[in-house]
Every structure is written in structure tokens, then in C-alpha cells.
């Protein structure tokens, strides 16, 4: 895979937090940025968000008071 360098201008505090997070998770800031960008451009974050929402609803059980009308058809059939 061919790679390219990219220069980012980020707030110092965000960079500091990213470095701490990366160190705690035995990775690099570069890898974190790569993974986040890959998720964004692949649509993976949409699938993950939908999955989390379904899990939240399922935890409430079959007698949930979840208002089904709160779901928009467009959201359910969102195209990527």
C-alpha cells in the first residue's frame, strides 16, 4: 500500500489526549487517525451506530415502551 504524508493542525490539548490514549492502547496516533478515517469513508460508523441503537432497544425487552414512530423510514433505509 502506497502511503502519503499528511499535515494536520490540531489543538495541543487534543494531541496530548490522543497521545495518552494511544499509549494506553498500545498503538500510535497515526494508527488512530487511519482507523477513524477508514471508518468514516467506508460507512462503517453508520453500521456501528445502528447496531448500538438496536442493542439499546433490545435491552429493554419485548414489552418496551419504545415509540416505534420515532424511527424515520429514511434512517432505517439510509443508503451508503
Quick synopsis:
It is built from 4 helices and no strands.
Report what the structure shows.
The protein is mostly helical and 80 residues long. It has two domains: 33 residues, no CATH class; 38 residues, no CATH class. Helix content is 59%, strand content 0%. It contains four helices and no strands.
Order of helices and strands: HHHH
Beta content? under 5%
Percent of residues in helices: 55-70%
According to DSSP, the number of beta strands is 0
What can be said about the biggest beta sheet? none
Number of domains: 2
Radius of gyration: 18 Å
Unreliable stretches covering 5 or more consecutive residues: none
Amino- and carboxy-terminal Cα gap: 25 Å
Structural class: mainly alpha
Counting H and I runs of at least 4 residues, what is the number of helices? 4
Mean pLDDT across all amino acids: 80
Shape: elongated
List the helices and strands and how they pair.
Elements: H1 12-24, H2 29-42, H3 44-59, H4 73-76
What features would you highlight for this structure?
elongated; 2 domains; 80 residues; 0% strand; 4 helices
Amino acid at each position: 500500500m502506497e502511503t502519503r504524508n499528511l499535515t494536520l493542525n490540531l489543538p495541543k490539548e487534543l494531541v496530548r489526549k490522543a497521545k495518552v490514549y494511544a499509549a494506553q492502547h498500545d498503538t500510535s496516533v497515526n494508527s488512530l487517525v487511519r482507523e477513524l478515517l477508514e471508518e468514516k469513508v467506508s460507512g462503517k460508523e453508520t453500521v456501528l451506530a445502528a447496531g448500538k441503537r438496536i442493542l439499546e432497544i433490545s435491552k429493554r425487552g419485548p414489552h418496551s415502551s419504545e415509540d416505534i414512530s420515532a424511527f424515520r423510514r429514511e434512517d432505517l433505509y439510509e443508503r451508503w
